[in-house]
Design goal:
Strand order of the largest sheet: 21-22-1-23
Bound molecules: ligand EPZ
Oligomer: single chain
Radius of gyration: 21 Å
Structural class: alpha+beta
Distance between the termini: 5 Å
Number of helices: 14
Largest sheet: 4 strands, mixed
Strand content: 25-35%
Length: 419
């Protein structure tokens, strides 16, 4: 197993580029299943979750190859409608393949994705929406055996919660359904807009993505297209947190600043000077941050749950007390225990975390608890006095492209070592 060796205390300074969004790449790779031809996804990040999605595509019969920063998928011949358990287990968000496989093949056989470090990850909203479109779903010993009588049919679907994954699955299934689908209370995340843009390039007729109501007029079939994946807003937020908690001064480039509209004000409240310059964001941190005040995670465009952990690392060394309320996931504070091992003062009470800032954290041996929890520990290690050993970094590699190579040019003392 690999680990990261981090020596803290150096302010991060310089310029850093953001790679393509993991949470856009995954539904886009699923969408490629619908395309009877070649699809090219540019700016597709080299992440283990992207690798897992490409494995699923290959298993289904697609020809998949990486060309530098792009992934090329030819889904002309789909020869399977089933995703084996180990592949489903490798990445819980594989459930986003369900709608696309069912729409393309007329049937689908996947397993329940199961829970993860963030708590139970139900898919009731996915299944209810897909059933409204005509998917017949039998649950058998953890497997979802799905079939379509004829062709999926457009429907009126209202989500009780603006689930990102459910919105994606419904869009993917509705794109080639017969007739109109109107989806209300849809997720508004930028990744939803990116998916709709991609599908429309492939010949779909989708309007309203990014708003609460999305309208899809089904078409017969989709062709391939070329598409550039949007930048990863959570990776951008993570880099900004690393600069904020080390008293740094960085320019994050190739971002979509508007995607961080719910995040940037928090850094300003903590005393950072934040300036948007075109596609770049400049953050200059004070010698010591002020507390973040109240941070409530919300569906987009609110403060994103994925940025909660990285920001908590910054709050841990701020002056004053910050309060986090995690409204999206049941159990998303596993990183708090590891931060406490580094000297952080964090009290948890259900969905609330109270962080009393300390003058300094100290290095320690800690483990990634999940993807974004791991990112929090990288930020904390960079801010801490002394050396931090970070284990279980496979979690990090799911969503951050070689994070140690990205941060080193900014003056971070961080290196990957084999155990
Ligand atoms: C996506 O997960 C992201 N993952 C998550 O990012 C992100 O945290 C989340 O959206 C919220 O923004 C990908 O895009 C691959 P949801 P998803 O469906 O689709 C409940 C990361 O770190 N819910 O919006 O699973 C669910 O339990 C990951 O990159 C139901 O109850 O999120 C959760 O409490 C972590 N029933 C809430 O909704 C359902 O059918 C949000 O889930 C579906 C969801």
């Amino acid at each position: 197993m690999e680990r990261l060796m981090i020596t803290g205390g150096s302010p991060l300074r310089g310029e850093i580029k953001v790679h393509g969004a993991k949470n856009s790449s995954l539904p886009l790779l699923a969408a490629a299943v619908l395309c009877r031809g070649e699809t090219v996804l540019h700016n597709c990040p080299e992440l283990s979750d992207v690798g897992a999605a490409c494995e699923i595509l290959s298993y289904l019969g697609c020809k998949v190859r990486r060309q530098g920063r792009s992934v090329v998928i030819d889904a002309a011949d789909i020869r399977s409608h089933s995703v084996p358990e180990p592949l489903m287990r490798e990445m819980r968000s594989s459930i986003v393949f369900l709608g696309a496989i069912a729409a393309r093949a007329g049937q689908a056989d996947l397993s329940f994705p199961g829970g993860c470090e963030l708590g139970p990850r139900p898919i009731d909203l996915h299944l209810a929406g897909l059933k409204k479109l005509g998917l017949i779903i039998e649950e058998d010993r953890g497997r979802l055996l799905c079939r379509v009588d004829g062709r999926l049919k457009g429907a009126q679907i209202a989500l009780s919660f603006p689930s990102v994954g459910a919105t994606e699955n419904i869009l993917l299934a509705a794109a080639t359904a017969e007739g109109r689908t109107v989806l209300t209370n849809a997720a508004r995340e930028p990744e939803i807009i990116d998916l709709a843009d991609f599908l429309n390039k492939c010949g779909a007729k989708i309007s309203g993505a990014g708003e609460g109501t999305i309208v899809v007029d089904g078409v017969e079939a989709l062709r391939g297209c070329e598409h550039r994946v949007i930048p990863d807003r959570i990776v951008a937020a993570t880099y900004l947190s690393c600069a904020a908690c080390t008293g740094g001064d960085i320019l994050v480039t190739e971002t979509e600043p508007v995607h961080l509209a719910g995040i940037l004000p928090i850094f300003e409240e903590m005393g950072c000077a934040v300036k948007v310059e075109g596609k770049s964001i400049r953050l200059k941190a004070p010698a010591r941050l002020r507390a973040a005040g109240d941070v409530r995670t919300m569906p987009y465009p609110g403060f994103p749950t994925d940025a909660q952990a990285p920001l908590m690392a910054a709050a841990a060394v701020a002056e004053g007390t910050s309060m986090f309320v995690e409204n999206i996931f049941e159990s998303r504070y596993k990183h708090a225990g590891e931060l406490t091992r580094m000297g952080a003062k964090i009290k948890l009470e259900g969905r609330v975390a109270v962080v009393e800032g300390v003058p300094a954290l100290h290095g320690a041996e800690v483990s990634c608890t999940d993807l974004r929890g791991g990112a929090a520990l990288v930020a904390a290690g960079l801010a801490a006095e002394g050396e931090t050993i970070l284990r279980e970094i496979h979690h990090l590699d799911r969503g951050y492209e070689r994070i140690e190579e990205a941060l080193t040019p900014l003056g971070a003392h961080i290196r990957r070592i084999a155990d």
